[in-house]
Amino acid sequence: LFYALSDAASLPLFLASMAFNMAMGLLIERAHAGRKALLALGVAGNLGFLGWSKYTGFLASQIPGLEFLAGTGPSAMPLGVSFFTFSALAYLVDIFRGSVRAQTDPLRFGLFLAFFPKVTAGPIARFPDMDGEPGRMTLENLREGLARVGVGLAKKVLVAGTLAPVADAAFGAAPGRLDMGTAWLGLFCYSLQLNFDYPYSSQSVREFWRRWHMTLSSWFRDYLYIPLGGGRVAPWKVQRNLLIVFVLCGLWHGASWSFVAWGLWHGVFLAMERTRLGRAIDGLPRPARHLYALAAVGLGWVFFRAPTLDAAFSYLQAMFSFGFDGFAYTWLVRVNREFLLMAAVACAGCFPLIPWLAARLGPLRPAAGALVPPALLALAVMQLAAGTHSPFI
User: Fold this and answer.
1) What is the rounded distance in angstroms from the CA atom of residue 151 to the CA atom of residue 157?
2) Which of 108, 235, 237, 258 has the most CB atoms around it within 10 Å of its CB?
3) For residue 201, what pLDDT is reported?
4) Residues of the chain below pLDDT 50
5) Is 266 a catalytic residue?
6) Among 215, 186, 216, 209, residue whose Cα is nearest residue 293
């Protein structure tokens, strides 16, 4: 129902993918011979569906000889196609490996793929993580769940939503019209819109990837990097594997060369960190390692956020132009007390400062836990009701 209300036109495609993967799972589990061929068929079917849904226009416009693909894909990319396709791929591989039993109940399998909190924007759920009998509903469970909703919605609406217009204005500026100050401020705001497990506390790019988009990182590790040989092969092959994985990781995020460049950027840093230079960086003082990781990750966001590769290079040029014409206007129009407050909250939220403070509240902790999340939820709902800027990320 949620999927139909969100993207009714793509519902038949989603149901077709669901039926295909349920059938392939049963065939792989029950086959006595040719299981590898069946797995290959299942993988090819899913990747073909993902490519047709998401990349036909990109391939047609970028690769000579593939012009015939133009217009052959769906009119709009199916909602959450990257997430539910990768979940389905993991399901088939896990059945082949014997770690998961194939599902015979279409409702149970459909719930696994279509579960509404994660179908639109992840995480990439694996079947073992969602399998099992549901727990008993209690008032304590309800309280904890509503607290998560309140805090999470406040992060999205109050913090990220306040910073987003500044990032949008900076990355949407016409080439040559962006000053250095606005460019850095826009990158600062966009970086703070994206957060997982305190990724900006990292002291290396490899630590960043353990903290950022953890389900995507583990998916590529378990289903691509390790099958390619992982870190158990010759050093040059390890670096090759990292480059392959992260170029594909970039392409998974979107069909453009800027995403490929972002993936390659991270792949190069991860490969470098396995060399003598990387070991030298590991020996630096903690603040220097932190600054290195912030610089590497932050500059990479330019490729991730810019609409095209040319726009990314233009943005980087503006960041180091040492020209500030226009920054006074940005500060006057975009920066107010609400922005400064939310920027400070976002910076504090990049580190486990709030849990550290909560642990030291002593007898006041239960009261804070009971009062703060509902207050945040109320503020977030009021902000939504006001119809303020709230982009989807």
Assistant:
1) 10
2) 258
3) 93
4) none
5) no
6) 209
Among residues 168, 219, 130, which one has the least CA distance to residue 393?
Answer: 168
Question: What's the Cα-to-Cα distance from 361 to each of 355, 364, 368, rounded to whole Å?
Answer: 10, 5, 8
**Are the CB atoms for 286 and 207 separated by under 8 Å?**
no
Q: Rounded to the nearest 5 degrees, what angle is found at the Cα of 306, between the Cα atoms of 300 and 310? A: 100
Residue 337: other Cβ atoms inside 10 A: 7
Which single residue is written with the structure tokens 């007898």?
A: 363
SS3 75: coil
Rama region for 30: left / alpha / beta (φ>0; ψ in -120 to 50; rest)? alpha
d(CA 369, CA 140): 12
So what's the pLDDT on residue 389? Answer: 57
* CA atoms of 39 and 42, how far apart (whole Å): 5
Collect contacts of 313-321 with beta carbons under 8 A, ≥24 apart.
314/175, 314/176, 314/178, 315/170, 315/171, 315/178, 315/183, 318/178, 318/179, 318/180, 318/182, 318/183, 319/180, 319/183, 319/184, 319/187, 320/180, 321/179, 321/180, 321/183
The two three-digit tokens of residue 319, written as one number? 């960041």
Q: What pLDDT is recorded for position 329?
A: 87
Other CB atoms within 10 A of residue 128 CB: 12
**pLDDT for position 39:** 96
Structure tokens at 54: 């998401």
Residue from 253, 266, 290, 389 carrying the catalytic annotation? 253
Start-to-end Cα distance in the chain: 22
Q: Give the residue among 75, 115, 111, 55 at the shortest CA–CA distance from 256.
A: 55
Contacts of 332 (CB under 8 A, 6+ apart): none
For every residue of 6-73, which 3-state class applies, written as one string?
HCHHHHHHHHHHHHHHHHHHHHHHHCCCCHHHHHHHHHHHHHHHHHHHHCHHHHHHHCCCCHHHCCCC
Tell me what pLDDT residue 393 has: 62
Q: What is the pLDDT of residue 279?
A: 93
Give ∠ CA 226-231-236 in degrees, rounded to 5: 115
Instruction: Provide the pLDDT for residue 354.
Output: 82
Question: From CA 163, how far away is CA 112, in angstroms rounded?
Answer: 34
Residue with tokens 């990387």: 278
